[in-house]
Design a protein that fits this description.
With 298 residues, this protein is an alpha+beta fold. Helices cover 33% and strands 27% of the residues. The longest helix is centred in the middle third of the chain and has 16 residues, at 160-175. The N and C termini lie far apart (44 Å).
């Protein structure tokens, strides 16, 4: 089922409260006594959640307009990450954390902190957090965990002399293009000829580790060639590339962004759904303009 991650609205307060209370009584109750669970639960009534919405950046994960998970960012602190117990273990919490980290980076946060329950410690550890200290509130033990964000890889405009050979190599690795009209060198030449400033690369020092192309015809925008080097995947870089291209298209006045997913690559559907994209009832058709396609791939 598609999962959308978005900013919480005041109308989500009841759903957020239900998810948190369900997770507390089902998951966290395995690691904490009943009095601790009751004390924490009192902080997440619908009215209490409404008050939090005014003070924090609160996100929700939604399926069929139903809140199934939530997370919040309070300056550089992650708070209140909860997933419906029936849906835990399906990657929904990770999708929320990708968005939390993106927003933290955009806000200039270099170290992200989270007061983790004992229950959630393995989850945060897998995401790269490490425990720095224990905190006790009566008989409630909390683990303060941190993750450095200072290594964020910059995303900027493609520069042909600096980037061409590396982009060609990355696309061959990521896509394995072997048809004449998809040759990386040809695609780069065609994109540069348009000169629309919508060709972006992510770099680690001087090494290209990610790419995205965008297009805009004055009505709709398109995303293409979203690639991340295998060594840098599952760190939020792909999401950062998409967000960067979205911002560029938005600045041009774009009202809607489309993308296509090739057959056999259905595994990325969840990635785009987490960024707000959804499958539409469309039939994708295409036509090759043969006179513009080189016949010699060399």
């Amino acid at each position: 089922m598609p999962t959308e991650v978005r900013l919480a609205q005041t109308t989500d307060a009841e759903g957020i409260s239900q998810v948190i209370l369900a997770a507390l009584h089902d998951s966290n109750a395995r690691d904490y006594p009943a009095d601790v669970i009751a004390r924490v639960a009192s902080n997440f009534t619908p009215d209490a959640v409404l008050a939090l919405l005014a003070r924090r950046t609160v996100l929700v994960a939604v399926q069929d307009d139903i809140v199934v998970a939530t997370a919040a960012l309070d300056a550089n602190v992650v708070r209140s990450v909860f997933v419906n117990p029936a849906l835990q273990g399906q990657g929904i919490g990770r999708l929320l954390m990708i968005e939390i980290e993106l927003r933290a980076r955009e806000a200039g946060v270099t170290t992200l902190s989270v007061p983790s329950s004992l229950t959630a410690e393995p989850f945060y550890t897998k995401l790269g957090f490490h425990t720095v200290r224990d905190v006790y509130h009566g008989n409630e033990r909390t683990l303060v965990m941190e993750k450095a964000l200072s290594s964020r890889h910059p995303i900027g405009a493609y520069r042909d002399r600096q980037h061409r050979a590396q982009v060609v190599a990355l696309w061959q690795l990521a896509f394995g293009y072997d048809t004449a009209h998809n040759l990386p060198t040809l695609a780069i030449d065609k994109k540069l000829a348009v000169n629309d400033g919508l060709f972006f690369v992510a770099t680690d020092k001087k090494t290209v580790i990610g790419t995205i192309l965008a297009g805009y015809d004055g009505h709709r925008g398109w995303l293409y060639s979203v690639a991340v080097h295998p060594d840098y995947r599952r760190r939020g870089l792909g999401a950062s590339l998409v967000r960067h291209a979205e911002q560029a298209l938005t600045a041009l006045g774009c009202m809607k962004i489309n993308l296509q997913i090739t057959g056999g690559n259905e595994g990325v559907v969840g990635f785009y759904e987490a960024l707000g994209y959804g499958a539409e009832p469309r039939i994708s058709m295409g036509k090759k303009i043969l006179e513009n396609i080189p016949t010699d791939k060399a």
